Amino acid sequence: MNSSRYIKTLVVDVLIDNDGIIIIYMKDVVEIDEFDVLDLNLIIRRLSDNKPALKLIDSRCNWSISPKAKRQAIQETSLNKTIARLL
Questions:
Q1: Is the dihedral of CA 3, 38, 86, 31 positive or negative?
Q2: Mind listing the pLDDT tens digit for each residue in 19-43?
């Protein structure tokens, strides 16, 4: 797979498919912190060329998010360009 279209971190694997859909696979981790949230959002911006994109998240594994990271994610979501989101 083209490495510019697939990025691995300690907490997620992220790829963008041929239709421009960003697919995020969560990994089994103890807790996601605010730096993981920032890292993920930078990856999404890079893969989408900072354009609106549909994001699909596979979060079926064991993970949690710290309160500070949750606040960071909410703040980033308001700045992020997402076409649709499931609440």
A1: positive
A2: 999 999 999 977 899 999 999 999 9
